[in-house]
Protein backbone atom coordinates (compact mmCIF):
# COMPACT_ATOMS: atom_id res chain seq x y z
CA UNK A 1 0.00 0.00 0.00
CA UNK A 2 1.16 3.58 -0.65
CA UNK A 3 3.03 5.90 1.70
CA UNK A 4 2.18 9.58 2.21
CA UNK A 5 4.11 12.58 3.52
CA UNK A 6 1.64 15.15 4.86
CA UNK A 7 2.12 18.84 5.64
CA UNK A 8 0.08 21.60 7.29
CA UNK A 9 1.49 25.13 7.34
CA UNK A 10 0.49 28.75 7.87
CA UNK A 11 0.78 30.94 4.77
CA UNK A 12 0.49 34.73 4.76
CA UNK A 13 -2.18 35.39 2.14
CA UNK A 14 0.07 38.09 0.67
CA UNK A 15 2.57 35.33 -0.19
CA UNK A 16 0.13 33.06 -2.01
CA UNK A 17 1.61 33.58 -5.47
CA UNK A 18 5.22 33.17 -4.32
CA UNK A 19 4.21 30.00 -2.46
CA UNK A 20 2.39 28.72 -5.56
CA UNK A 21 5.53 29.28 -7.66
CA UNK A 22 7.73 27.55 -5.07
CA UNK A 23 5.29 24.63 -4.77
CA UNK A 24 5.07 24.25 -8.55
CA UNK A 25 8.85 24.03 -8.77
CA UNK A 26 9.12 21.61 -5.84
CA UNK A 27 6.23 19.50 -7.11
CA UNK A 28 7.86 19.14 -10.51
CA UNK A 29 11.12 18.06 -8.86
CA UNK A 30 9.40 15.52 -6.61
CA UNK A 31 7.44 14.08 -9.54
CA UNK A 32 10.56 13.97 -11.73
CA UNK A 33 12.31 11.93 -9.03
CA UNK A 34 9.42 9.45 -8.73
CA UNK A 35 6.68 10.77 -6.43
CA UNK A 36 3.31 9.42 -7.58
CA UNK A 37 1.28 12.50 -6.58
CA UNK A 38 2.03 15.98 -5.28
CA UNK A 39 -0.93 18.01 -3.97
CA UNK A 40 -1.22 21.51 -2.47
CA UNK A 41 -4.51 22.73 -1.03
CA UNK A 42 -5.51 26.12 0.39
CA UNK A 43 -8.01 26.42 3.24
CA UNK A 44 -11.58 27.06 2.15
CA UNK A 45 -13.87 25.71 4.88
CA UNK A 46 -11.52 25.62 7.88
CA UNK A 47 -12.91 27.01 11.09
CA UNK A 48 -11.09 27.55 14.39
CA UNK A 49 -12.04 24.92 16.94
CA UNK A 50 -12.55 24.95 20.69
CA UNK A 51 -9.90 22.31 21.38
CA UNK A 52 -8.26 21.48 18.04
CA UNK A 53 -8.37 22.66 14.44
CA UNK A 54 -6.15 23.30 11.46
CA UNK A 55 -5.81 27.01 12.37
CA UNK A 56 -4.84 26.15 15.94
CA UNK A 57 -2.38 23.48 14.83
CA UNK A 58 -0.19 26.11 13.10
CA UNK A 59 -0.94 29.01 15.46
CA UNK A 60 -2.63 30.86 12.60
CA UNK A 61 -2.17 34.64 12.75
CA UNK A 62 -4.28 37.42 11.18
CA UNK A 63 -3.59 37.68 7.46
CA UNK A 64 -2.66 33.99 7.16
CA UNK A 65 -4.41 30.94 5.77
CA UNK A 66 -3.76 27.22 6.13
CA UNK A 67 -2.10 25.10 3.45
CA UNK A 68 -2.62 21.33 3.53
CA UNK A 69 -0.45 19.28 1.22
CA UNK A 70 0.70 15.75 0.62
CA UNK A 71 3.03 13.67 -1.51
CA UNK A 72 2.26 10.05 -2.39
CA UNK A 73 4.85 7.30 -2.89
CA UNK A 74 4.69 3.58 -3.62
CA UNK A 75 6.12 2.71 -0.17
CA UNK A 76 8.22 4.15 2.62
CA UNK A 77 11.35 2.78 0.97
CA UNK A 78 10.30 4.50 -2.27
CA UNK A 79 9.72 7.73 -0.32
CA UNK A 80 13.18 7.54 1.20
CA UNK A 81 14.73 6.99 -2.25
CA UNK A 82 12.78 9.86 -3.82
CA UNK A 83 13.50 12.27 -0.96
CA UNK A 84 17.20 11.42 -1.08
CA UNK A 85 17.28 12.36 -4.77
CA UNK A 86 15.21 15.51 -4.17
CA UNK A 87 17.46 16.72 -1.36
CA UNK A 88 20.52 16.28 -3.62
CA UNK A 89 18.91 18.05 -6.58
CA UNK A 90 20.70 21.40 -7.14
CA UNK A 91 17.36 23.09 -7.94
CA UNK A 92 16.39 22.57 -4.28
CA UNK A 93 19.48 24.34 -2.88
CA UNK A 94 17.82 27.73 -2.30
CA UNK A 95 14.74 26.13 -0.71
CA UNK A 96 16.92 24.07 1.62
CA UNK A 97 18.57 27.20 3.06
CA UNK A 98 15.24 28.09 4.68
CA UNK A 99 15.81 31.81 4.16
CA UNK A 100 13.31 33.92 2.26
CA UNK A 101 10.58 31.28 2.49
CA UNK A 102 7.00 32.47 1.85
CA UNK A 103 5.82 30.87 5.13
CA UNK A 104 7.02 30.28 8.69
CA UNK A 105 8.60 26.84 8.56
CA UNK A 106 8.82 26.69 12.36
CA UNK A 107 5.02 26.37 12.47
CA UNK A 108 4.80 23.72 9.75
CA UNK A 109 3.58 20.28 10.82
CA UNK A 110 4.69 17.28 8.79
CA UNK A 111 5.07 13.55 8.98
CA UNK A 112 5.06 10.27 7.10
CA UNK A 113 2.03 7.97 7.06
CA UNK A 114 1.35 4.42 5.99
CA UNK A 115 -1.84 4.34 3.96
CA UNK A 116 -4.10 1.67 5.43
CA UNK A 117 -7.27 2.26 3.41
CA UNK A 118 -7.56 3.40 -0.18
CA UNK A 119 -11.05 3.32 -1.68
Count all strands and give the number: 4
Most strands sheet: 4 strands, antiparallel
User: Roughly how many Å apart are the termini?
Assistant: 12 Å
**Count of DSSP helices?**
4
Radius of gyration: 15 Å
Q: Give the SSE string.
A: EHEHEHHE
Q: Helix coverage percent of residues?
A: 25-40%
The shape is globular
Strand order of the largest sheet: 2-3-1-4
Helix/strand-derived category reads: alpha+beta
- Low-pLDDT residue spans: none
Write down the overall mean pLDDT: 95
Measured by DSSP, the beta-strand proportion falls in: 25-35%
Descriptors for this entry?
globular; four-stranded antiparallel beta sheet; 33% helix; 119 residues
Task: Explain what this protein looks like in three dimensions.
The protein is of the alpha+beta class. Helix content is 33%, strand content 27%. It has four helices and four strands; from the N terminus they run βαβαβααβ. The protein has helices at 16-32, 54-57, 76-88, 93-97; strands at residues 3-12, 37-42, 64-73, 109-114. Strands 2-3-1-4 form a four-stranded antiparallel sheet. The longest helix has 17 residues, at 16-32. The protein is globular and about 40 Å long.
Secondary structure elements and pairings:
Blueprint: E1 3-12, H1 16-32, E2 37-42, H2 54-57, E3 64-73, H3 76-88, H4 93-97, E4 109-114
Antiparallel strand pairs: 1-3, 1-4, 2-3
Give a quick rundown of the structure.
It holds the Pfam family DUF1428. The protein is an alpha+beta fold.
